Amino acid sequence: MIVFVTAMLLLNITPGQDMLYVIARSVAQGRAAGIASALGVGAGCFFHIFAVAFGVAELLRTVPVAYQAIRYAGAAYLIYLGVRMLLSKGVHEDAPVVQRARLDRIFLQGAVTNILNPKVALFFLAFLPQFIDPQGSAFRQTVTLGLLFDASGTLVNIAVALAASKAGAFLPARMKYVTGGVFVALGLRLAIPERV
User: Fold this and answer.
1) I want to staple 154 with a disulfide (CB 3.0 to 4.6 A). Which of 42, 75, 109, 134 is the partner?
2) Taking the model in full, what pTM does it have?
3) How far is CA 175 from CA 12, 48, 82, 88, in A?
């Protein structure tokens, strides 16, 4: 659980598409718009959490060897994400351009943007199953871990919205190196079988 919490916190403080969206909204329209966008992104994550929970639980129930397949595929994907992040030029090129809108529309746009982002679905599928005990309820564990991750991410995005609305863009440029390294290290740790 310590590994999960550490990885979760590091991943949630790293700028990504969702955080860039929150920053863009906060800078363009202020604190309320930033918070609405953060809450919308958090709501959108529910879709991915439950999709992964149902899929992983069913897969592990019907094909027990699938756990190892998911584990190795997830490890490879995390290493790929880490290397890609380490080699990227920066996060600014992904910053979204936003137009002014009402708060309910901003919330909805945050949720839809998150739901339609296949990278979020792949990330949850790669990340969450790594921390599931195949002997327990895969569904319950996936939902619990997913909700913890989402709650942490939503709180971070709200903090970013508050900071960005006051100080302009709040993008720690060097965070890509920290997160890239965490992804690679986590992927390698998951790919190497534990000694019994």
Assistant:
1) 42
2) 0.72
3) 11, 25, 12, 12
- Lookup: tokens for 27: 């800078």
Backbone angles phi, psi at 132, to 5 degrees: -95, 135
Q: Where are the domains of the chain?
A: 2-191
Q: For the stretch 55-87, what's the b/e string if a residue is b when 16 or more beta carbons lie within 10 angstroms of its beta carbon? A: bbbebbeeeeebbeebbeebbebbbebbeebee
More confident residue, 146 or 28: 146
Enter the tokens of residue 33.
Answer: 């718009």
Q: What is the pLDDT of residues 101-120, one digit of tens each?
A: 799 999 998 898 888 876 77
CB 19 within 8 A of CB 27: no
Contacts of residue 90, Cβ cutoff 8 Å, sequence gap at least 6: 173, 176
